[in-house]
Design a protein that fits this description.
The complex is a heterodimer of chains A (110) and B (113). Chain A has 110 residues and is an all-beta fold. Chain A has strands at residues 3-5, 10-14, 19-21, 24-26, 32-38, 45-49, 60-61, 72-74, 83-90, 99-100, 104-109. In chain A, the strands form three sheets. In chain A, strands 2, 5, 6, 9, 10 and 11 form a six-stranded mixed β-sheet that branches. The mean pLDDT of chain A is 91. Chain B has 113 residues and is an all-beta fold. Chain B is globular and about 35 Å long. Chain B starts with a strand and ends with a strand. Classes of the chains: A mainly beta (110), B mainly beta (113). Chain A binds chain B through residues 6, 9, 32, 34, 36, 43-46, 49, 86, 90, 93-98, 100-103, and chain B through 4, 33, 35, 40-45, 48, 58-59, 90, 92, 96-102, 104-107.
Chain lengths: 110, 113
């Protein structure tokens, strides 16, 4: 079965420091990977997906099939990045349900 | 264009009571899903639907029923509320398959006493 692991429940960094939120997955095929974010008092929203290969709000994520990882990175964290981040996997084809990790709460301190 | 609308936002129930959480979307999305969010557990899929008249179970379906009579609406019913169902419930929709971006509602915070 597919599994998504986010090893850090909590992550705290200072403003301006680099940040990396880790995501590892278990799936034998070619998955599609996503990062969703939930800011305080806001609804969950898509941050980025690996097939887009784009940078959103300064965040990037590269799919590493060899290491089965999809880590989220930002070179200089901002206070407004404080949020709950979820990594999610969609099995190849998209017909099977989305699998979410347990989430990482990022706090960016001033 | 409201997107995904969930009602109510908050609800307190007594053990054994039943209720329906409403979810409506105005984007003509085929796929709709219900998740529950619990501390340390992430988002877990309860039920989902790939179109009107079609529903299926997710990871944690016990104690919940769904129906999909229209494309727009996907209500979640708690048959006999239990304290273990205290959670935040999110409805989501997407066009096409699960590998398309999910659009989430604001959530319903449900407490079972």
């Amino acid at each position: 079965a597919q599994r998504v692991t986010q090893p850090e429940k909590l992550l705290s960094v200072f403003k301006g420091a680099p940040v990396e939120l880790k995501c590892n997955y278990s799936y034998s095929g070619s998955p599609e990977l996503f990062w969703y974010v939930q800011y305080s008092r806001q609804r969950l929203q898509l941050l980025l997906r690996h097939i887009s290969r784009e940078s959103i709000k300064g965040f990037t994520a590269d799919l590493n099939k060899g290491e089965t990882s999809f880590h989220l990175k930002k070179p200089f964290a901002q206070e407004e990045d404080s949020a709950m981040y979820y990594c999610a996997l969609s099995p190849q084809g998209g017909s099977e349900k989305l699998v979410f990790g347990k989430g990482t709460k990022l706090t960016v301190n001033p | 264009n409201a997107g995904v609308t969930q009602t109510p936002k908050f609800q307190v129930l007594k053990t054994g009571q039943s209720m329906t959480l409403q979810c409506a979307q105005d984007m003509n999305h085929e796929y709709m899903s219900w998740y529950r969010q619990d501390p340390g557990m992430g988002l877990r899929l309860i039920h989902y639907s790939v179109g009107a008249g079609i529903t299926d179970q997710g990871e944690v379906p016990n104690g919940y029923n769904v129906s999909r009579s229209t494309t727009e609406d996907f209500p979640l019913r708690l048959l006999s509320a239990a304290p273990s169902q205290t959670s935040v419930y999110f409805c989501a929709s997407s066009s096409g398959a699960f590998n398309q971006p999910q659009h989430f509602g604001d959530g319903t915070r449900l407490s079972i006493l």
